Amino acid sequence: MLELRDLSVRYGAVRALEGVSLQAAPGGITAILGANGAGKSSLMRAVSGIAPVAAGQVLLDGQDITALPPPARARLGVAHAMEGRRLFRQLTVEDNLKLAWSFGARRGKLAASLAEVYARFPILETKARIAAGLLSGGQQQMLILSCTTIRSPRFLLLDEPSLGLAPIIVQQIYGFITDYAAQSGIVVIIAEQMATLALRVSRQGLVLRRGRVVLAGAGEELLRGKDGKTLAASYL
Amino acid sequence: MDDFFFSLLLAGISVGAVYALIALGLNLTFWTTKTLNFGQGSLMMLCAMLTVFLSSQGLAIALAVLGSLAVVAALGMFIERWTVRPALQSSGGSMGWVVSTLGFGIFLQGMAAKYFGSQAVAFPDVVFTAQDFVTVFGQYISLQYLVVLAVAVALILAFELFIRRTVWGQAVHAVSLDPELALVQGIPVRRLILGSFMLSSVLAGVAGVLIAQIGGTVDPAFGFDLVLLGFVAAVLGGMGSSLGALAGGLLVGVISKLVGGYVSTAAEHGIAFALLMLALAVRPQGLFGRPEVSKA
Question: Which GO terms describe its molecular function (chain B) (predicted)?
Answer without folding.
Answer: transmembrane transporter activity
